[in-house]
Design brief:
Elements lengths: L11 E2 L5 E6 L16 H13 L3 E6 L2 H8 L10 H20 L6 E6 L1 H5 L1 H16 L3 E6 L5 H6 L2 H11 L4 E6 L20 E2 L4 H5 L13 H13 L3 E6 L3 H8 L2 E2 L1 E4 L5 H11 L6 E4 L1 H10 L8 E5 L7 E8 L2 E9 L4 H7 L7 H5 L13 E3 L1
Parallel strand pairs: 2-3, 2-6, 3-5, 4-5, 6-8, 7-10, 11-13
Antiparallel strand pairs: 1-9, 8-10, 11-12, 13-14, 14-15
Helix pairs in contact: 1-10, 2-3, 7-9
GO molecular function: ATP binding; glutamate 5-kinase activity; RNA binding
Family: Belongs to the glutamate 5-kinase family.
Protein name: Glutamate 5-kinase
C-alpha cells in the first residue's frame, strides 16, 4: 500500500463486490447559496457507471432534497424554520434531486422514497426489497431518499447514513460506500486538530473508535461522522463492509472506480451469510407453521431450493406476510420441524394456494407476491 500525493490515506485495494449501496450527502450536492450543483455528483456518477458497465449493481441513497427546495423558495430557508416548512422544501426539491441524477445516466433513474418505518415493518420491508430487486433486474438505477415530507423524526435526525446501511442489508449488498466531505476517519476532527491521524482500517467499532467521531462539518448536511460509524455498525451486523471516502476529491473518486480506496475501510465482524443465518435462526417466531410434504422437504434439505406452493399442504395459525414461522414436514408420522423462514404469504393465502402451481397464484388470490412461499435466502434449515 502506498501513500498518495492527493490523500493522507494509504491506498488499499477494494475487495470484490457485485452489489453496493452508495450514500451521497447534501454537502456533496448543495450549491453555494442554495440549490444543487453537479460539481461533485458527476465524478460519483462516473464511479457508478464504470461499475455498472463491469456487470455490478449500485443503489444510490441520496440526500439533497431540502437543499434543492431552498433554491425554489429561498424565503423558507431561514434557520430554525418550522418542520412543516422543511418538509415542504423537501417535497419541492425531490424532483430537482432526481433530475440531477438522471442527467448523468442513459439508463432510467427510479425514485424510491422510504421511511425507517417502511424498513422496520416486515411486510413493507419485503415489498421494498422486491421493488428494488425488480428495478435492478430491469436495468434501472434506484435513487433512494427518506420520505421527508411525512417522516418528521427522520427528517429531524437527517439520518440517511443509517438509512443507507439498512438499505444495504435490504438489497443484500456486498459493500456500503459513504461519500463524505472529509478524507475518512481520523483520530480527531482534522479541521480543528492539526495532529489528527488518518485511520485506514477499523476491524472493530469499539467505544474508543466511536469517540473519535465529530459532528457535522457542513451547514447543509445534518449527519456527522458519528452517524457514519453508526451506519457502519449496522452494515457490519449484516456482514457488509463500509468504505468512507472524500467525494469532493476527484482523484479519490477516480481511484475508487478503478478498485483503489483512499479512505477508511470498516470491516464487518462476520460474513453476510453468517449474519443472515444467525438472524434467521434467532428472530422471534410467530405462532403457526407452514406444513409441507416429503418432496418439498427433500428439495429444501438436499437442493437448497425455495419453498413453492406445490409442496405446501397447509398452514397452522394466523400469521401474516413477512412473519417468521416454522416450516414443518407433515406426514403419517405427524409433524416435524425442519426449517424456519420468512413467509411471503399470510396463512390465509397459503391455505388457498397450497398444492397449486406458481402460475396459478394470481388467478387464485387476485395478486402475486412472487413464486415462493419462502425464498431460500429467507430460510434456514434446523
Amino acid at each position: 500500500m502506498n501513500q498518495s500525493s492527493f490523500s493522507p490515506f494509504t491506498e488499499q485495494t477494494l475487495p470484490q463486490w457485485r452489489r453496493a449501496v452508495l450514500k451521497v450527502g447534501s454537502s456533496l450536492l448543495a450549491a453555494d447559496g442554495g440549490g444543487l450543483t453537479p460539481r461533485f455528483a458527476l465524478g460519483l456518477a462516473q464511479f457508478v457507471s464504470a461499475n455498472v458497465l463491469a456487470g455490478r449493481e449500485v443503489v444510490i441513497v441520496s440526500s439533497g432534497a431540502v437543499a434543492a427546495g431552498r433554491a425554489i423558495l429561498p424565503k423558507a430557508a431561514e434557520a430554525g424554520a418550522a418542520m412543516a416548512a422543511r418538509q415542504a422544501l423537501a417535497a419541492l426539491g425531490q424532483a430537482q434531486l432526481i433530475a440531477l441524477w438522471q442527467r448523468f445516466f442513459e439508463r432510467p433513474v427510479a425514485q424510491v422514497l422510504l421511511t425507517h418505518d417502511d424498513l422496520r415493518n416486515r411486510r413493507r420491508y419485503l415489498n421494498a426489497r422486491a421493488t428494488l430487486n425488480e428495478l435492478l433486474a430491469l436495468g434501472a438505477l434506484p435513487v433512494i431518499n427518506e420520505n421527508d415530507t411525512v417522516s418528521v423524526d427522520e427528517l429531524k435526525l437527517g439520518d440517511n447514513d443509517n438509512l443507507a446501511a439498512i438499505v444495504a442489508a435490504l438489497v443484500d449488498a456486498d459493500a456500503l460506500f459513504i461519500a463524505t466531505d472529509i478524507d475518512g476517519l481520523y483520530t480527531a476532527d482534522p479541521r480543528s486538530h492539526a495532529d489528527a491521524q488518518p485511520i485506514n482500517e477499523v476491524t472493530a467499532l469499539t467505544p474508543e473508535i466511536m469517540a473519535m467521531a465529530g459532528g457535522s462539518g457542513s451547514a447543509v448536511g445534518t449527519g456527522g461522522m458519528h452517524t457514519k460509524l453508526q451506519a457502519a455498525a449496522k452494515a457490519g451486523a449484516a456482514g457488509i463492509d463500509t468504505f468512507l471516502f472524500n467525494g469532493r476529491n476527484s482523484d479519490v473518486v477516480r481511484g475508487l472506480a478503478q478498485g483503489r480506496l483512499h479512505g477508511t475501510r470498516l470491516h464487518a465482524g462476520q460474513s453476510r451469510i453468517a449474519a443472515r443465518k444467525y438472524w434467521l435462526k434467532h428472530a422471534p417466531l410467530e405462532a403457526g407453521a407452514i406444513l409441507i410434504d416429503a418432496g418439498a422437504a427433500r428439495a429444501l434439505r438436499d437442493k437448497g431450493a425455495s419453498l413453492l406452493p406445490g409442496g405446501v399442504v397447509g398452514a397452522e395459525g394466523e400469521f401474516r406476510r413477512g412473519d417468521m414461522v416454522e416450516v414443518r414436514l407433515f406426514d403419517a408420522q405427524g409433524q416435524q420441524q425442519i426449517a424456519r423462514g420468512v413467509s411471503q404469504y399470510s396463512a390465509v393465502d397459503i391455505r388457498r394456494i397450497s398444492q397449486h402451481h406458481t402460475r396459478e397464484i394470481e388467478s387464485i388470490l387476485g395478486y402475486n407476491y412472487g413464486d415462493n412461499v419462502v425464498h431460500r435466502d429467507d430460510l434456514v434449515l434446523l
